[in-house]
Structure formats: C-alpha cells, structure tokens
Amino acid sequence: MCQQATPCGMRRPSKLFAGAALLSSFVTAVTSADTDTDSSKRGIAYLGTNHNNDYNIFLSGQSPLTWYYNWSPYPVRNPSSFRNIEFVPLIHNIDSLPADIRQLSNLPSSSTHLLSFNEPDHGTSGGGSDISPSDAAGAYIDSIAPLSVANGGNFLISHPSTTGTLSGLSWLRQFNTSCYAINTTHGCHTDFLATHFYGDFPALASWLGTLNEYYNTNTGSDLPIWITELALPQMSAQRTERMMNTTLPYLDGLGYLGRYSWFGIFREENANEWTGDGVALLDDSGDLTALGAMYLGSGFAEGESANSSPGGSGGGGGGNKGGAVAVGGGSNLALVVGVGVLSCVVGSMV
C-alpha cells in the first residue's frame, strides 16, 4: 500500500492476455493463501428491507463482522447498532459527485476507507454507474484522488468497483490508460482495489489472481483487494453452502485479500430473480440459514433467530444480472466468470 506524501499509485500496468493469464492466475491464487485465517475481513453489504431487526445478530458482540457499506455515502440509521462497526462510504457515480463529496465531511473518524464508482462497466438499470473509462479517470483525478491520505485527505481510496468479468478487466485497463494520459507520472492513485464477483470458487480464485497479477505482480505494488459483492447465483442452497465452505477459509487466509462481503444478508423472500434464494443468509422467518450460520462462524447455528439483541456495544470485530462468460485458456480449460450487477436503488436504503 502506497502511503507517501506525494501523489502515488500503481505503476503503469502491462497488457494482460486473458486466456493464459486466467489459468496461471488460478494456479497462483489457490497456492498463495496463508494457513492463518482472519474472519474479521467479513462485512455487510446492506440492503434495506422491511425487517431491520434481522441485522441484530450480525451486529452482535459475538459477530466477527467488522464493517458495512450500502452503495452510498450515507450511513444506516436504523438499527442504530450499525454505528458499532465501520461504515465504508461509496461514491456511486459522477452525477451526484459534488453532493457526495460534501457528505463525506459528516462521517465519523471511524470511516477510514472510501469506495468509488459502482460497476462503471455496467448499465444503470442493473445498479451500475455506466461511466466511460475516460470520464471516470477525469472525475477520479479531480475529486477522488485528493481524498487519499497520501494526498492529505482522510481516506484510503479504491479504484472503481467493476464486475468480475472480462468486460470489467477491459474497463480497468482502459481506465488506467486514461489515468496515465492525464497524469503521466502517477496515473490515478489508489490505496486498495474493490471488485464484485458472482460465480463458483475456481472462477473466483482465478479472478482474484488476475487482478492481483495486473495490479500488483506486474507493477511491484502491494495493493489489498476487496470483494464488495460476492455470491453464487441461481444455485441450490446446498451447492452454495459447498461453495461458501471452500471460499471463506480461502479468503480469510489470502494475504492480499483485505475485506469481503456476501450478497446477501436478507430473507429468502427478498432475493431477486437473478441471484435466487440460495444466496440468502436468512430464511423467511428471519432465522439463520445454514449459509448464514457459516458466514457468522463458530458459535452460530442454523435456525438461530436474527432478531436477538446485539450482545454489547461493539461489533465482535466487528435489476437484472447479466449472464456468464466462458473464458477460454491456452488449453481446453474453461472458467466461468459471473457477471455481477446489483439491483438496488442507491439512496433509498437510508
């Protein structure tokens, strides 16, 4: 992570060839996880529903969850126990940029990280911000980069959060090219990366390896990567449980993986058509599903009510979706990378 006083960021990345790189990245990613695990990386991707008390168990003193975000710079007010964990603001798009920047000054000092531009590689009808790489680069250098602690600001800032797809990777490459066209020395300074991913474990590991190779291995940087939307859509609960059982310890032990949040903490009835109800951490009675108990970890059980009161003042640490893209490697291997696009109305959740 770059902390120097002058503007800084990743060095100019080299061109990445998708097929062979994805296969190589998968092998590297799977073998690079540490044996020690850290469940405090886990957080909450907050979606407003009519069941505010469902979040109580995730905010309890026994919960490992340490942070949350809600696709906006405005923190959640109800339940009030959300203030016990770190709120991570997100500047969703460039249309509301001036007002969103002003709102950042109202946040508590515990908000130390800032996410930028939600899915700029995808359309607004699916929750994306639909920003061209060149427009995003200009807005980022003018308004986001100055907010970094490296430039005298108050936040550690991320590059825009793209979908975990080849289109997302292409967008990031064009974004960085545009950044260096504006600032030939530093490009667009960033302190960490954020991404979305919908798919099974092998494709997830490959995607993370690809990002790490592009931003870190190829440039000599050491930027943490966050996954701010993560799920296995349109699969049975049992299939999703197997995916999560493999994924959580891997992410907890992966050195360059900074934080992640599952999509989603809601009841099965609140799941959208694209994700399917297999991703839900709560059943329709507001009790933990097996998946929900797994996400919270040791001490939590399937069927436990989510409406129980938080146990203490501090958290224990706390639309439509696109289809899938088959990525061909140098052999006959095909990795499936899910297209992640959030279907929510940003700003209506506060």
Automatic annotation (TrEMBL):
Organism classification: Eukaryota, Fungi, Dikarya, Ascomycota, Pezizomycotina
Limits of the Asl1-like glycosyl hydrolase catalytic domain: 47-295
Keyword Isomerase: no
Superkingdom of origin: Eukaryota
Source species of the chain: Lithohypha guttulata
Annotated InterPro entries: ASL1 (IPR053183), Asl1_glyco_hydro_catalytic (IPR024655), GH (IPR017853)
Keywords linked to the UniProt accession: Signal
Protein name: Asl1-like glycosyl hydrolase catalytic domain-containing protein
Signal peptide stretch: 1-32
One Pfam family, short name: Glyco_hydro_cc
